[in-house]
Amino acid sequence: MPLRPLIGAHVPVAGGLLRGVEYADRVGAEVIQIFAANARRWGWQDPDPVQDVAFQAGTADRGVPVFVHASYLINVGSADPAIRRRSLAALTHAVDRAADLGARGVVVHTGSAVGAARNGRRGCLVSGPISTRLRDLLLPVLDRGGALGLRLLVEPTAGGGTSLASRVEHLGPYFDALDRHPALGVCLDTCHLWAAGHDLAADGGLAATLDALVEAVGPDRVGLVHANGSRDGLGSGRDRHESLAAGMLDTSAFRQLLANDALREVPVVVETATEGHRADIALLKGLRDGLAG
Ligand SMILES: [Zn+2]
Ligand SMILES: [Zn+2]
């Protein structure tokens, strides 16, 4: 077991999955996240069995864990039955591909209740008919993922609009709606948390956020962290990733992240612009390795 988190990136796989492994080598990634289908269009291509085998062998040889990020179009909170049907199909596909590829988990955004009443506040927490939507859509996916040894990692969004979960407290009702399913986990994105008003850069800010998370969902639910900087200020509600050394989120947030004992076995990937991946990974490794000893 690593004493500190593995560090890597969301890697591009256009041109074949093996490109992702080669990319990981180039940027120094110890863990990778991939899309198993087009992230911005419904549907997917048939897998290439040769690439699948080479990808599995390449990641296993390197000891690089794999996570699959499901399509951005999936919205498990949608009021539109057609969107929910497509979301279920896309999420099921992502889980099956993750199992094929030996991945540890599937990341999906917590979603929003487009078309729902706002209740006069930011966000639209899970209750009533939204709970029913979540249960109908996600419980079968969680059962399937659990049977395959995978976790479904729900990622709180930056907030704004009718987001179902942006602050970590919002995950309490979200988990309740899903009976706190054992295959249910969380993916924390530093840019999203910052946008939702969690001041990760303040002294003790990261620990306070994790305390609130544990209060909401209990311990040991975080399966992956997305380390991203932000172009916007604290509580902006905006989701604009920035490279780690730039932007408004101070790198003290990442130092606290890598020093946190509860997260020491939770891998960290950057989802920043690809041209900055090598530098972003090097920055995180420098912070992590500076803590060793
Ligand atoms: Zn995401
Ligand atoms: Zn993310």
Describe the protein's architecture and organization.
This protein has one domain (10-271): Divalent-metal-dependent TIM barrel enzymes (TIM Barrel, Alpha-Beta Barrel). The chain is 39% helix and 14% strand. It contains nine helices and ten strands. Strand 3, helix 3 and strand 4 (105-109) form a beta-alpha-beta unit. The longest helix has 20 residues, at 81-100. It starts with 6 loop residues before the first strand and ends with a helix. It binds zinc ion (ZN) (2 copies).
* CATH class descriptor: Alpha Beta
Percent of residues in helices = 25-40%
What's the name of the CATH homologous superfamily? Divalent-metal-dependent TIM barrel enzymes
Give me the side-by-side strand order of the main sheet. Answer: 1-2-3-4-5-6-7-10
Helix and strand content put the structural class at alpha/beta
Tell me the strand percentage band.
5-15%
Shape: globular
Q: List the total number of helices.
A: 9
Task: Estimate nothing, just give the exact number of structural domains.
Answer: 1
Low-pLDDT sequence parts: none
CATH topology descriptor? TIM Barrel
Instruction: Identify the bound ligands.
Output: zinc ion
Mean pLDDT: 93
Structure summary, number of beta strands: 10
Termini separation comes to: 16 Å
Order of helices and strands: EHEHEHEHEHEHHEEEHEH
Radius of gyration of CA atoms, rounded to a whole number: 18 Å
Largest sheet: 8 strands, parallel, barrel
CATH architecture classification: Alpha-Beta Barrel
